[in-house]
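stuck on this fold:
=====
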Amino acid sequence: ARGRDLRLLSRIWAQLLYVFVIWSNLTDCQFVLKPDIYTYTVRHTFPHDPDSFTQGLVYDQAKDVLLESAGLYGESTLREVNLTTGKVLRKYDMQRRDFAEGLAFHRDRLIQLTWRSSKGFVYDRTTFELLREIRTPLRDGWGVTNEGPDSDELVVTDSGSQLFFLDANSFQLVRTVQVTDDGKPVRLLNELEWINNEIWANIWMTDCIARIDPISGNVNAWVMLQGLRSELIKERIPQRRHMDVLNGIAWDSNTNRLFVTGKLWPRLFEIELRKIEWPPEMDLAASRRLCMK
């Protein structure tokens, strides 16, 4: 009996040792989960100024309006826009030498970046009064967002694959996070919005949105919105300029409304996302080819 007990104990120890070895190996591995794929349903369609080269978009819950940063040299503006009618309620005309980029709230102020420059601007949120000019560590300002208007940090991009976390008061660099999918860098991170513990980023030259883990930088999901622009093209809406790519994400956290538009788009859309359950590998590969430049 004693011999059987010793053999049993030996087997138990051997199994425990095997489990320990396997666990030790697994903890040294980095698991990369495959991103989900989302498509969309349009819930509402709103007019949008077809001459607005949308670079930054935020929703103002207090007034139920959109605030928009519109780019291009000689045409850049900061705007307050009626959500329902698309009418520009007021605007601030920028200097001709400045090309407006991303826009974000910070407490009672608005922070705006500029293209191919470290320059940014701080405005009074209520009056649009220009309070001061700022400098960031970036040489090229693209997108900007934060976890909330009272956050101590801003998240900005510069056309590359990095998220730069800046102190929201001094605008000095705090840390960087590399954005990747399948171990590869995701470049051209453009307009940003922080939604439910993720950073959502338009990818320039595409109609894709990357949903990014702000800690790891992994892409949690791809949002495929190619159908929006193609349907607008079919409408043949008269306008002075050709529509450019998707750019502009705004989130109403009170009612969970998601708004998107594009550069020189005549429409703004409220959309609802639909997850594609268990997308086949072929669909994921196709999404990556469309979204990762």
Notes: The longest strand covers residues 36-47. The helical segments are 2-27, 226-235, 281-291.
